Predict the 3D structure of the following.
Amino acid sequence: MRRECIIYKSSDIYPRHVCIDVEDGLDIVSFLEDPKIRKKFDYIVNRILTQNFIYYEEYEQIKTFKGLSEIRLFPNGMNARIYCKEVSTNNGNFYVVAAKLIPKKSSQKINKEIGQFIKPLENYEYDI
Amino acid sequence: MSMTFEDKKLQLQAKLQKWHTVKTDEDLLKEDEFILMANYLSEIERMGGEMKRNVLAKKIGTSASYLTQVFRGDKPLNFYTIAKLQRALKVRFSVTAIPNNQSVMLINAKKIDFTPTDISNLYSIKGGAFRYDNQKKQQISNVS
């Protein structure tokens, strides 16, 4: 499934970029309008872009879904998730594309409903 | 009426552009502060391996919830805590400053065998440097 995304921020030190999916991006940015949530999002983005090892407790791969990862947001007792598609290109660049939002996740695990929600991301192909 | 793809794209671009331009110099400095902290935290997590957070918290005499707040960037990481974590994990941080346009890791942690507490076990080696090695006392003494 061909998709388009916009680069939100790129790393100064690694060939890494965090992007936002165009089709579903407005849901994500509306959620990030709250300055406290955006500050938290920016913190996670900066960690993804500047750490030697990109995965940590707020950004992890989802082992049961190919090429997918999740950003975990916990500001103000919130338990939100932004599901991402990871894309590597032949020229060595690595893109994390924020593609789906769940503003309130009720459990830590990925249940059947969420699984069905994020499953299509596996087939996303980005023109970058 | 639903938005077209092009409308969505334009609106998204405008929003992201605005977010980038409203950042003040103070905001950007704060971001740099958190990036520096994140580099230490990343190394601490890497060197901590499978160690549970409550175990690490106990080792440094704090609570697991405080450490969680630090790891999530909700509380600042101070150098006193870094020193305690360094000791608890038996690692040593090395810090390198480089020109802004070079791509290398700035902060690195390496495992050490133990933390010297008894300076009587420090042995002088050539060049004015000191080495601490409990196991090879005799061998190092011969070098000095």
